[in-house]
Design goal:
Length: 383
């Protein structure tokens, strides 16, 4: 494996040395940055939302104002197409992690064209660096760790594909592809395709949720070069339909389980097997997404239009905070780096609801916006 990796790195370095012309942003209302909150370097504190438009995917940039509300700053075409799984209504990709921000780069999946777009982030402005093939069919989720980037492709039985980041560019490593072997004939499609790929916090393992296609969590080992074990260790959760994941401060896996409308926590054994720790029912419908904000977690309930809050009480245990209305078809969500604000997408109308996170973990609504062309879309990140 070492030789292909070295060749790929050399190739990527050559690509990175060549500047690419960026696609211009479409005109957007407002003067980007005026009145927006800023970080210590003076750059805008922005929120980015993916539209997943099937006729043309785009990322819409918003400035975060001092009260946490949002103002549109720009629209940036990805150069690819969004996609919709059959049977999906408010969640066309039925996944978490379709838009990922990491160390100055923004990764956006183009499910309809089997590609991944890489943007350089400058405050609330994006510069498109490249569009690369995902290595499979219908990419829905991305995860990063250091220079490693892995993409989850949902169709044709599912697969994960690894890349190496060199400067602002990616190079695909062909030997880092692992088919998941899921049944591609199961219906409806949106409940039977894989939901998320995620590195563990230490980067030693790669986690994939299969939703209703096996109702399992697959865990691959990651070697020192960034490649994966030949086969994952699979933990089946009958009826749970594991959809999306996060991690607590102690490295426990926190899973949104759509089949039981619960949030469950697990420790991950060195072998990759999951060891159950605790489970808490949300009492809501279609509990599919989960986001961490410091010592709190918030699960999105698409069927109820709510967020279910939890306090991390340590050792993998969670204490329920209650439910907060967010909007019809509540899907993906993102917390700001400072932990002060939470933004939840509402897929029915293609909107985003903004919340202030209070000292006790409760949420106070501070505004909402409709994202142009984003009905049914997923993918949101916050600086």
């Amino acid at each position: 494996m070492r030789t292909p990796v070295r060749l790929a790195l050399a190739s990527a370095a050559a690509v990175a040395a060549t500047a690419l012309f960026a696609a211009p942003a479409l005109a957007a209302p407002g003067d980007a940055g005026t009145g927006a909150s800023t970080d210590a370097r003076g750059s805008s504190s922005a929120v980015f939302v993916q539209t997943d438009g099937v006729a043309g995917n785009a990322v819409v940039a918003y400035d975060r104002l001092p009260d946490g509300s949002l103002r549109q700053a720009g629209i940036y075409p990805t150069g690819g197409l969004g996609g919709a799984l059959t049977g999906a209504v408010v969640d066309h990709l039925a996944s978490q992690g379709s838009l990922v921000l990491d160390r100055g780069l923004l990764y956006a999946v183009n499910a309809g064209s089997d590609t991944l777009t890489v943007f350089a982030v400058h405050g609330d402005h994006l510069v498109r660096r490249e569009i690369v093939g995902s290595g499979g069919s219908f990419p829905v989720s991305v995860t990063t760790h250091g220079a490693l980037v892995y993409v989850l492709d949902a169709r044709s039985g599912g697969a994960v594909q690894g890349f190496v980041r060199i400067a602002d560019y990616l190079v695909r490593i062909p030997v880092w592809n692992r088919p998941l072997g899921l049944d591609p004939t199961l219906t409806p499609e949106f409940t039977h395709t894989p939901g998320q790929v995620a590195f563990t916090p230490d980067g030693s393992k790669l986690v994939v949720t299969t939703k209703g296609n096996g109702s399992a969590v697959d865990v691959f080992g990651v070697d020192r070069f960034g490649g994966l074990s030949a086969q994952p260790v699979t933990t089946v959760e009958p009826g749970a339909v594991p959809f999306a994941v996060s991690f607590d401060a102690g490295g426990h896996l926190v899973v949104a389980e759509a089949g039981t409308n619960s949030v469950a926590t697990f420790s991950i054994a060195p072998s990759g097997a999951l060891v159950p720790v605790a489970t808490s029912a949300t009492g809501q419908a279609a509990t599919c997404w989960i986001v961490r904000d410091g010592s709190w977690f918030y699960a999105s309930n698409a069927g109820s239009g709510t967020l279910s809050g939890y306090t991390d009480t340590g050792a993998g245990s969670l204490s329920a905070l209650g439910n907060t209305p967010a909007g019809a078809g509540t899907v993906d969500a993102a917390a700001t780096a400072d932990g002060r604000y939470l933004y939840a997408q509402t897929g029915a109308a293609g909107g985003v609801t903004a919340f202030r996170v209070n000292a006790d973990g409760s949420l106070t609504t501070v505004g909402s916006v409709i994202v142009p062309g984003a009905a049914g879309g997923e993918g949101i990140v916050a600086q």
